[in-house]
Amino acid sequence: MEKNQKVVLAYSGGLDTSAVIPWLKDEYDAEVIAVCCNAGQNEDFDFIKDKAIKSGASKSMVLDIQEEFITDYIWPTVKAGAIYEDYLLGTSMARPLMAKKLVEVAQDEGAQVIVHGCTGKGNDQVRFECTINALDPSIETFAPWRQDNWQFKSREDLIEYSKSKNVPIAQTVEKIYSRDENIWHISHEGGNLEDPWNEHLDDIHVLSVTPEQAPDKPEYVEITFEKGIPVAIDGENLGPIQLLKKLNELGSRNGVGTIDIIENRLVGMKSRGVYETPGGTILYAAHDALEKLILDRNTMHFKQTVAQRFAELCYDGLWFTPLMKALMAFVDSTQEEVSGTVRMKLYKGSVVCAGSKSENSLFSEEFATFGEDEVYNQADAQGFITLWSLPLKIRAMLKLKKEGDKNEAVERKVYKVSE
């Protein structure tokens, strides 16, 4: 990055990105515009906005992206049923939108560079930079943590530097976990999680209680979908933000949605994370149950293949690609009939479907019953099985014939030798 440029900084208000502001001014004489995206994390955004200015930014802004995050990123991913190695893609979905907003600000402000605080070991650097390159390749991306002149090796180094530059510091205690939070989830890395033999501790929980702490009585919730999108809880129509917050509350108090996994990062290493996704876990299970009621066999099975590819593209930072656009079009076509209501049972960390109904259901009690019926002639199954298994039968017959011919040849050879 050249000196004397106007830059847009992806700003969280934390120690790292706060220290980046005076560092950019010291090292590059940069004019820094700090941009914080409110994706539903539990933060004091007025404090964050003010802190950026006190840290040396020429301008500070907080963008509320919650509803766009839900409608344009979360809902498409739920409709796809996309899951990456058990992970419901909370951070992965948010980063493309955040990067998109950074590009918009850079264009509006005439900035030449977008700066982010990702390290060289994480996935987020890829997600930010792939999005920026896809939306405006004229904008340069810059990551201080990857630069030789980034002299800080520890949290203590950052604290000392921040104090010397009069950067406000809320606390100086060592962080136990590295966390990322939005309205969909919170992730936890580091601390005792770095040893995969260690069980994660109860103090890690932020959004949910543990299953042991959840009520001893199950709780039921009904979720109504229209074309694959959740629109109502227990018969009450709710907007996207209100609906997801309601499900988060239900999942949280019932200990739903916490997973502890080792995942394969895009950058080539394994990492361990604990993810709390209370409302999202309920939604995925409910949407899956409704699809099983409505989608035909071939569509549902092919959609499962699409879901995996969708998840990989999202995880790998390839949201704004032709393939993702094509997959979304396919998913949308499968959701035309996915409307109905699902009743979910929440109990001590588990979430199961306790009932589903839809005007578009392909389930027919007349056909599925084990009792006597007038619409299904069981004798028809014999002809179907005969034709279905015909390739297997032909193959077995040919195999037996070959083995018989071979045995006959061996017998003739033995008989000739004995003569």
Shape: globular
Class by SSE composition: alpha/beta
> The CATH topology of the largest domain is what?
Rossmann fold
Query: How does the major sheet shape up?
Result: 5 strands, parallel
User: Level of helix content?
Assistant: 40-55%
Tell how many strands the DSSP assignment holds: 14
Mean pLDDT: 93
What do we call the CATH homologous superfamily of the largest domain? HUPs
Approximate strand percentage: 15-25%
What string gives the helices and strands in order? EHEHEHHEHEHEEEEEHEEHHHEEHHH
Radius of gyration (Å): 28 Å
CATH architecture of the largest domain: 3-Layer(aba) Sandwich
Q: What would your notes on this structure say?
A:
The chain is of the alpha/beta class and 419 residues long. It has 3 domains: 6-174, HUPs (Rossmann fold, 3-Layer(aba) Sandwich), CATH 3.40.50; 179-295 and 337-363, Alpha-Beta Complex (Argininosuccinate synthetase, chain A, domain 2), CATH 3.90.1260.10; 369-419. It has helices at 15-28, 45-54, 66-80, 90-109, 124-135, 155-164, 240-253, 278-294, 297-315, 322-334, 365-368, 380-388, 390-418, and strands at residues 6-10, 31-38, 59-64, 113-115, 140-142, 178-181, 186-189, 219-226, 229-233, 236-237, 258-264, 270-276, 340-347, 350-357. The protein contains 13 helices and 14 strands.
